[in-house]
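We were asked to recover a plausible sequence for a given structure. The inputs and outputs are reproduced exactly as logged, with field labels preserved.

PROBLEM: sequence recovery
POSITIONS: 338
GIVEN STRUCTURE:
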């Protein structure tokens, strides 16, 4: 009889525990199948989102003092919910000319290889060594090795510091790279094998395409034949860092500012900016991946990587996105881009 009473009491305790667990936010979030924000632990910024095969990938900057930014990690997911960390996909031991400040990776697949474009050394003048480099690997998780043995862009041209590169393949198969800090943005045309840049029809190697309000962090994507050019505004250490965008009919603009993309919520975080866009192939599912500073954090490098759903109105304009704790729902990639 005593044994039976003990079993009943233990059963009651189990039921109470389950009821409490169900009411907890973490349990509810898991049941709702949302990613939550941030999507992975650690201080990471400037996230580059990409889709390779049936996996989502995020390549961020390791957010720390410049001297400690000597490597990069990557994260992959099959459903946007569970993220696997791939540590040290590249570091300065593989890039002899890079000494610090490895920033803002841009990763693309070309000719069955994966290329990682990065900035290094935070050069302040043309007398310094550094700029935008290229690394190559056989898999999206690396390891990546220096591709050129030197920087691809190693000079300040049109006032644009050589940082924050984004590599873009146009509809005709041409490869371009947007880049630039210090409130200036350039576009260059890349050789098909990424070994250098080639001149435009007018003979120039660089074209400035800076839109109103631009500070850094350019990004481009095409939807329904329209070119969406995006960038970050404000100071990366300040609360009003933000994302804005323009729409154009080609990769060169003109890019007339339409408005902001991320709606700040200072009860959640501040400084939401330096983003990228992921698109699930053959669908209307677009996602904005960005960094933000958690509410209460004041250190400049205390930034975390987050994700939200991106939607459009009937005219194709981006509907402003509110930052959240919930993130996005589970979404497995159903078909591979052709």
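RECOVERED SEQUENCE:
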């Amino acid at each position: 009889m005593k044994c039976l009473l003990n079993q009943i009491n233990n059963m009651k305790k189990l039921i109470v525990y389950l009821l409490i667990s169900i009411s907890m936010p973490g349990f509810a979030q898991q049941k709702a199948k949302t990613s939550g924000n941030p999507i992975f632990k650690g201080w990471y910024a400037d996230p580059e989102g990409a889709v390779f095969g049936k996996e989502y990938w995020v390549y961020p900057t390791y957010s720390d003092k410049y001297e400690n930014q000597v490597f990069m990690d990557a994260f992959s997911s099959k459903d946007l919910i569970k993220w696997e960390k791939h540590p040290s996909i590249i570091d300065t031991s593989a890039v002899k000319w890079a000494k610090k400040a490895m920033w803002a990776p841009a990763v693309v697949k070309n000719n069955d290889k994966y290329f990682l474009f990065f900035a290094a050394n935070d050069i302040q003048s043309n007398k310094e060594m550094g700029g935008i480099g290229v690394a190559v690997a056989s898999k999206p998780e690396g390891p990546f090795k220096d591709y050129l043995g030197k920087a691809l862009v190693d000079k300040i041209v049109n006032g644009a510091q050589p940082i924050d590169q984004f590599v873009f393949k146009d509809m005709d198969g041409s490869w371009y790279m947007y880049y630039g800090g210090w409130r200036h943005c350039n576009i260059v045309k890349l050789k098909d094998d990424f070994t250098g840049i080639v001149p435009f029809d007018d003979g120039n190697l660089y074209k400035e395409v800076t839109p109103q309000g631009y500070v850094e962090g350019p990004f481009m994507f095409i939807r329904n034949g329209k070119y969406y050019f995006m960038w970050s505004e404000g100071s990366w250490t300040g609360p009003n860092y933000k994302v804005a965008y323009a729409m154009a009919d080609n990769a060169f603009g003109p890019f007339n500012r339409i408005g902001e993309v991320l709606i700040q919520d200072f009860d959640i975080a501040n400084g939401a900016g330096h983003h990228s866009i992921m698109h699930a192939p053959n669908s209307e599912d677009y996602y904005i991946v960005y960094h933000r500073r958690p509410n209460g954090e004041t250190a400049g490098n205390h930034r975390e990587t987050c994700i939200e759903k991106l939607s459009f109105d009937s005219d194709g304009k981006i509907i402003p996105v509110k930052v959240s704790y919930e993130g996005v729902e589970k979404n497995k990639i159903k078909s591979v881009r052709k």
